[in-house]
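User: Hello, beginner here. Can you help me understand these amino acid letters and fold codes? It all follows right here:
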Amino acid sequence: MSAPAVSICVPTFDGASVLQECLESALNQTFTDFELLIVDDASKDETVAIASRYARLDSRVRVVTHTHNLGLSGNWNRCIDLSRGQWLKYLFQDDRLEPKCLSDMLQACVPGTFLVACRRTLLADPSASPKLIRVYESYVAEHNLPRRFPGMSLIPAKAFASHMVDYPVANCIGEPTAILLHREAFNLYGRYHPDLVQLIDWEYAARIAVHRGLCYVDTPLITFRIHERSSTSLNQTGVRSYRSNVIDPLLILHELAYSPVYEPVRQVSSQRQPPVDLQQRLIDAVDAAARSARDDPARQVWTETLQRYPRLASAPPLRRLKRWATSHIRSLRHGGREAPCSSGDFRG
């Protein structure tokens, strides 16, 4: 069989209640040269039965199941291995595509760009609390591509690298359902980060954008469902909150400071006036993360993180002294009070 132009990848886990609507939206695309790949991560409900029924009815549908749970990034990476399309379009089981999603996003792509993003519509599930809805709506209103790059449908790589210096952990691109990815991106820039639990999609999209830029379609081509059972909601409870709100941002700062793939960000930061010291920023974040690891579960996560990323525990003493001295001087200048941050300080 010839490879399709697009692989619509649906990573599933216990999604029986919403899967039918999701799959129908994929099969109703006006652009028809695609495969619909459903990769199930050991669901315990009727997800596989529903997916298999669609596979019997439409030859474009394939279903692959795991015998054990691979987790979020593991299942997303498995979709890459199994897909055959030139482009990958993730579609989460909770979400849906507008009929012209594929055609409009493909048409918007500029040659040499490996990432296309689109505006999304937020849909509140009956299970979503008013507080959760407000959190999502507020976040999206603050962090979005039209706000950060007004009037731009093609965002150059250097402009996005500069954006990463200022907003390294704020997702302005959107969820995987709002993104179209070229297969070559995975060959050049690797797979999804295995140690992130919340910012997986943001970090990978940013990783591509700092090298290739991205295209943006300012039309709502997907619907993102807000509900209490989503990974985002679950990641705000217990020790998972420490992982998502403290460790994830810390690991992204670690990558910006040291990973070869983020060299474009380091080049931009060094050209700022004054230059932005990404390693010093990381040291500050390490100190804050260590102070936050007070209870036993968080302390264990922190210990495991230090073991996996030894640079986090080996900051040069002079850099720590520099941070302390700067803070102390600011305090003296403000009569012993902590000084307010300047516009050049870390805002992510």
